[in-house]
Write a sequence for this structure.
């Protein structure tokens, strides 16, 4: 059998094996090694997967200010 995994056109590429071939990944928050199937880092609690950014703080502040203005307008008039 000649070559390795990267030589098979139906198999994973060498780059994929390098990226996904390990059982562990590094937590972006604390740098700990975490099992690649883990959803949460056991050291710092960082949640993996999905949209990790969440709602921007500016959107929360603007929404709160608009609601405050609306309530004040309704109370005054």
């Amino acid at each position: 059998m000649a070559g390795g995994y990267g030589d098979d056109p139906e198999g994973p590429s060498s780059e994929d094996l390098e990226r996904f071939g390990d059982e562990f990944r590094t937590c972006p928050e604390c740098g700990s090694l975490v099992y690649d199937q883990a959803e949460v880092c056991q050291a710092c609690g960082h949640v993996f997967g999905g949209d990790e950014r969440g709602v921007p703080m500016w959107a929360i502040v603007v929404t709160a200010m608009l609601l405050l203005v609306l309530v004040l307008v309704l109370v005054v008039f």
The two ends are 83 Å apart (CA to CA). Helices lie at 14-20, 57-76. Strands lie at 24-26, 33-35.
